[in-house]
Structure formats: structure tokens, C-alpha cells
Amino acid sequence: MSARTGTFTIGDTSVEMPIKSGTIGPDVVDIGKLYDRTGTFTFDPGFLSTASCESKITYIDGDNGILLHRGFPIEQLAEHGDYLETCYLLLYGELPTATQKADFDYRITRHTMVHDQMHSFFRGFRRDAHPMAVLVGCVGALAAFYHDSTDISDPHQRMVASMRMIAKIPTLAAMAYKYNIGQPFVYPKNDLDFASNFLRMCFAVPCEEYKVNPVLARALDRIFILHADHEQNASTSTVRLAGSTGANPFACIAAGIAALWGPAHGGANEICLRMLMEIGSVERIPQFIARAKDKNDPFRLMGFGHRVYKNFDPRAKIMHKTCHEVLAELGIKDDPLLDVAMELERIALHDEYFIERKLYPNVDFYSGITLKAMGFPTTMFTALFAVARSVGWIAQWKEMIEEPNQKIGRPRQLYTGEAQRDYTPIGKR
Ligand code: CMC
């Protein structure tokens, strides 16, 4: 079968560029040699039509609301498995057998403690530090504590670093919360599952027994599964770009955490809750809807819309159900914030402006409400997203390092500044 090509005609020059096909999804035109052959770059800020890498981990069909990890639909993973099973799948490419799962759970659990000196590191932060600021710093600092897993050319060290990332980021996130509220750090407890252990590290205090609520633990585990990976989003692309330089994995994941913090990405769940609080009551919704539609007002309805999902977000569907399970378990019915959220959801699903632009409530809309009901402060929301996404970042980083033709990421630009000119001495300006 002859290889397919696409023809680019630029001025008088026509060149053939190879077309590559994935397993599913749109074909791509490989334009790697375009500059060599035509002296022209392509221009695609925001990567609207540009694939930045080849990957076997996650596939999204935004038009049809499909999210697959290693081929498995997110709905099935969230319904039947747990977060550590999804972690195993993302890292190794296959679902684990019972023995492999038990071994993986054991190994992750045994990596959850952080070096004791990290405690002194924490004391350098102000008490009111945002947990994401603490995470960016502390995850980057892990490279200073775990020298035996920073040699990226050693497959064993890469896997140890991956395990450490999945196991220790939750501990650091819980410590950031405890430090924030002035309570003592709670050490991980090895006989608990991943989500229950996280709840305990956040909400237990030394003076009384902490009983994990299984409905909340299951809901949190689901939030972790739903956020585990999402192909080449901004933070994952940041991790890959940082990793392409050969930087150690802890530094790369710290870069990913920084990118996740932004309100257009992982920061949306926090901003969404703050927006619901600002709206305050159902009567005030129309004025905020009017602002969201006003082209001269930068205000956007946070928790609505998605760059890729243009019909529905499959994660939001699952999260919607989980959200209601948590609210029922906690007996939350007459919460003004919830009333605002439900009315906003109703409007967005019926209003022409939102329908035309395909702006649906996204996963952060429901996860924000759920996390608030569980007792997490809004400042922790993005940190929880980072906990969940650690595995996606590290799996994508590993895949990139293991790619034989991997190159440093180095985008081109369209320069629109001054052309060359001569320096004028300061006295003559
Ligand atoms: N509220 C009001 N109008 C909106 C919104 C919104 N949330 N999102 C998009 N629009 C409008 C936008 O003004 C534009 O209208 P027009 O065509 O009349 O100019 C149209 O919809 C298309 O917007 P866009 O900016 O081209 O869409 P995008 O794909 O670049 O942006 C987005 C995607 C997620 C950044 C954006 O929808 C947004 O800012 N949403 C709120 C933030 C949010 O909830 N982010 C979390 C995303 S899910 C978590 C994750 O995966 O990271």
C-alpha cells in the first residue's frame, strides 16, 4: 500500500508531506520537514490543529463525549474499578491481574510517607499559603530528597519516581491543608485504601478516632479516576515540554502543577465555587448570565464549556451522579449554593447562547460542589485535581522519555517586533 501524502503549495513550491493515521481519531499531516523544504513555518497558537506528540495512553472524542484510557471507556473504569487500578492501567498499558493489583497497591502504599525533613521545609511557608503554591514548591523539592530516582535514563528509577509521585503528592497535599488550618500533620495509614487514607490525612485529628465514610471515600476515589489523565491538555503538555529537556521527573511534575493552577484549567473548580458564592442567590443569576453573554465583559461562567468536549463531558455525567450521592449521604438539601448551581445548570442546558456555543457544565462544576459538601475548602480543590492528575503526568512523561526519537520541544514563532536597528547611546535618545 503506498503511503498517503498531503500536498502543500506555498507560492511556486509544492511539497508532499506524509499523512499518518492513528488507531482512531483524525489523521495528521507530518509537517516536520516543511521548513527544510519550503522555508515556511505553520502558525497554530493554542494548538487548535496541531498534534504535539504520538501517544498510546488516552483518547478523547470531544464531539461524541468519549474518553478512553488505554482503550477502556472512563464510565467502565469509574463504575467497576478503583483509582489505583486506573493508575496501573495508565502506567503499564493493561489492567492488572489480582496479584499485580495487590502488589501495586502494596508498593504505592509503602511510598506514601515523605522524608521527615520535608516537615521543616513546610514550616518555611506562611500559614495562609495557597496549597498549590506549597505543592509546586514541595513536589519540585522531592528531587532534593530522592536522588535515587532522578536518573531518567534508568527504567527502574523512572518507575520508582512514578510510584513516589502517585504516593507522595496526596501526602503533601494533605499536609498543605493541615498546615493551613494549624492542625498537626496526620501520617498515612497503610491499612486504608488510597481515597480513605487521603480523607483521613485531611480530616483526622490525634485526639479522636476518625471513621471513614465509605460513600465519601468512593466519591473521592471517583473524582480521582475522572481526573487521572486527559491527553495533551495544558499541564500535561507542560510536563512533556519540561521533560523533553531531560529535567528530572519531580521538576517536570512541579511544572505541570504550576500550569494546572490556572483558572482556565485546574483552577476552574475553585473559581467556579467562588463564583457560585458571589452569585449567592437564585434571584441574582440573571445578571450574571447577562454578563457572561456580554462581549464587552470578560466575565465567563466558570465550570461551563470545554476546549475539547463540545457536546458533553463524559466525566461530568458521572460526576453529576456522584455529586447527588454525596449530597444525599450528607443530607444536604437546603443549601443556597446548591440552589444556585442547579438553576445555573438548568439555564445553561436551555438557553440559546449556551446551546449554540455548546457550553455544558463541565466536570469541575460538579466536582466543586461535591468537594465543598465533603468539607474541603475551595483552596484545596485544585490541589485535589493535582493529586489525581499526578499519574497522568508521570505516565505521559515516561512515554515521552521512552520514545526513541524524542526531541527537545522547541516551538517556532511568527516574529512581529522591530526589524534589526542600531543602538543609540543613552544621551542621544
Ligand atoms: N461562559 C460564557 N461564555 C463562554 C464560556 C463560558 N464559560 N466559555 C466559552 N464561552 C463563549 C466564548 O465567549 C465564545 O463566544 P463567541 O463565539 O460568541 O465569541 C465561545 O463560547 C467559544 O469560546 P472559546 O473561548 O473559543 O472556547 P475555548 O474552547 O477556547 O475555551 C474554555 C474553553 C474551557 C477555556 C472556556 O469554555 C472557559 O473559559 N470556561 C470556563 C473555565 C472552565 O470551566 N474551565 C475548566 C475546563 S474543564 C477542566 C479541564 O479539563 O482543565
Identify the notable features of this structure and list them briefly:
3-stranded antiparallel sheet, binds carboxymethyl coenzyme *A, globular, single chain, 6 strands, mainly alpha, 18 helices, 429 residues, 50% helix
* Fraction of residues in H or I helices: 40-55%
User: How many β-strand stretches?
Assistant: 6
Q: How much is the radius of gyration in Å?
A: 23 Å
Low-confidence stretches: none
What is the N-to-C order of secondary-structure elements (H for helix, E for strand)? EEEHEEEHHHHHHHHHHHHHHHHH
Mean pLDDT: 94
Distance between the termini: 66 Å
* Backbone structural class: mainly alpha
Ligand species: carboxymethyl coenzyme *A
**Strands across the major sheet, in which order?**
1-2-3
Strand fraction: 5-15%
Characterize the overall form.
globular
Major beta sheet, specifics?
Answer: 3 strands, antiparallel
Q: What is the helix tally? A: 18
Can you characterise this structure?
Helix content is 50%, strand content 6%. β4 (58-61) and β5 form a beta hairpin. It is globular, with a radius of gyration of 23 Å. It has 18 helices and six strands. The protein is mainly alpha-helical and 429 residues long. The strands form two sheets. The chain has a three-stranded antiparallel sheet. Bound molecules: carboxymethyl coenzyme *A. Carboxymethyl coenzyme *A binds next to α17.
